[in-house]
Amino acid sequence: MLRQVLMLALAAAPFAAAAQSAPAAGIPVEGDVLLVERVQMENSAALPARGMTMAQVQARYGAPEYRMEPRGGQKRAWPTIHRWRYPAFTVYFENDRVVDAVANQASANEIGPKPAIR
Questions:
Q1: Domain span at 79
Q2: pLDDT in tens, 78-92
Q3: What angle is formed at CA 89 by the lines to CA 95 and CA 52, rounded to 5 degrees?
Q4: Is the pTM of this model over 0.70?
Q5: Residues 87, 118: one domain?
Q6: What are 12-35's pLDDT values in tens digits?
Q7: CA 115/CA 34 separation, integer angstroms
Q8: Which of 66, 59, 105 is nearest to 83 (CA)?
Q9: What ranges in the chain are assigned the alpha helix state H?
Q10: Is 90 found in the same domain as 64?
């Protein structure tokens, strides 16, 4: 009897460890909100459209709260990428045109991209 209980406990141990480490591994648990779900619920037209210029983005959304250091541009094949952070989203520019706009993480419970390293 004792042997069966020990065997059962040993067999269940990996599953218990996996359940406890789920939040640390980025696996959503009940009560968490996925960033993707929030973005789908919100109006995606609120983000800058691909191809807009820096001047158009600034005219429509105002000045960004933070302009990150540009990356790339060392070679002709590597265009300069500029990143502007607004409260709700981050805009990525190749030279002076929008290539992407990404919603920022809204709360600690929301699973999404990590904050930008400044």
A1: 32-118
A2: 999 999 999 989 999
A3: 35
A4: no
A5: yes
A6: 655 555 455 455 555 555 556 565
A7: 15
A8: 66
A9: 2-21, 35-41, 54-61
A10: yes
How many folded domains does the chain comprise?
Answer: 2
Q: CA–CA distance from 64 to each of 5, 55, 84 (Å)? A: 61, 12, 6
Q: 26 and 48, same structural domain? A: no
Q: pLDDT digits over 25-63, tens only?
A: 555 555 565 655 655 555 555 899 999 999 999 999 999
C-alpha of 21 from chain center: 21
Verify that 23 and 37 share a domain, yes or no: no
In this structure, the answer to whether residues 40 and 93 fall within a common structural domain is: yes
Query: How many angstroms separate the CA atoms of 14 and 29, rounded?
Result: 18
Residue 15 sits in the same domain as residue 64: no
Start-to-end C-alpha separation, the chain: 59
Tokens standing for residue 31: 């009560």
